Amino acid sequence: MTSRRHKTLLAGAAITASLSLALSGCGSGSGSDSAEGNNIISVNNGEPQNPLIPTSTNEVNGGKVIDALFAGLVSYEPDGSTKNEVAKSIKSKDSKTFHITLKKGWKFTNGEKVTAHSFVDAWNYGALASNAQLAANFFSPIKGYEDVNPSGKGKKPTAKKMSGLKVQDDYHFTVTLSSPQSDFPMRLGYSAFFPLPQKAYKDMKAFGNHPIGDGPYKLDGKDAWQHNKQISVVKNDQYDGNREPKNEGIDFRIYTNIDAAYADVQDGALDLVDMIPESALKTFKDNSSTKAYSKPGSVFQSFTIPGRLKHFSGKEGRLRRQAISMAINRKQITKAIFQGTRTPATDFTAPPLEGYSKNLKGADVLKYQPAKAKKLWKKANQISKWTGQFKLGYNSDDPHKQWVDAVSHQLTNTLGIKASGAPVATFSQFRSEITSRKIDHPFRSGWQGDYPSIGNYLVALYSSGAADGNGSNDGDYKNKAFDQKVKEAASAKTPEQGIKDYQAAEEILLKDLPAIPLWYENVSGASTKTLKHVQFDWKNVPVYYNITKS
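== Oligopeptide transport system substrate-binding protein ==
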């Protein structure tokens, strides 16, 4: 694979082609057909956790819609490579100070011009601790972040703006980082870095319910978001970017049961479902009423055990985490329940990414070793005797019950404890319990990459800066040695050294196990037979703008 790191970025040039993946599904194509008639595509989704504010959305249901409504400085191609979008050029001589020039003529759908302030103001808003944005940590590399979002419980910001952001004129701004980050431009297509119109700051919550973007789609009127039913977007005719819609719009229909969504595809009542229920994994490829899509994917699945939970901190906690991991027969579950549509995890990233490994030091903790698991659990009991029940939280509007039950049975049988699933009705409710830290037991977790780097799978989930509600480190794991290694990786002089440093950071995770890696999720989906050009991108999401109906 080619490198994803660049010392210098040239004006007007497409930014790094990072992955040469081909994640197209069985029926994919180029999407070259023009839209035909009432070409609205209906797809499954869940209710977003929060209002649709780019810096406060770190879950997939809201993320799918936000990616359709907004355009950032760069955009990602289906294979994970990046192209300048709103940016005309992104230049740097030292990977520390970046000069960003915008294309002129770009507008939000309310007519407001997209300028340097549209980005700088949005980033400062997203970073400021008092705004409590879930993606705040993405701005931590920028100089002055510590002033607007100081680390340490109870500390208050001493500034409202990051000193590393400077507007030079309407179409030019500079970004100065605290230390060199050669892959910083690659991150700029992630939703946290999207621009906002000035109207947003008058009432951000209201804006989140009726967002105004600059992307390939716009909301279909004031009532486009019918909560718990549907979010409708239509083609933005003013958009002139890389992701030109080939259809006229998308209806994101909200389901609380994936079996119902799949049944609707079979009946022709829904065009596309981007996951397959467990009940159909054996048969979906042979279903004559639908088109099936199945390819290797990049979604990492795990469950998180917060260190604040009784019995899961210190030496006792490490022993119990290792015992739990070794008590799980991943091969058996992926074969029996997922019919081979999952691959047992060997690290904390995913196979399509550069730097993925099967041979990290300490990775044997992910292998099924019941006898050793019993010994480790017994050792932990000698430190502090286990009490209570092991509960594993999950949202029941997605197909998780079967594997959660299987893992619970294996823990019960191997460790001699009472283990069971703890369902929550909807993903939105489940995420709210997690982000508010009200959940009092381990919970399912996973990662769909924001940008195609193994660093994104590590920093976003396990760095101290992403803990305490400042990012996606929902278990609030903190380890200074891990933080140092990922910092060294981001500023490494060569891509090869960066990968080595990230892998060294992973080896720390394999000792501590803040989350228990389970498996990697393949692309599995289905559509009606009238749908054309269905393709899944590098992070397992359908490339919605390319899809058409016959």
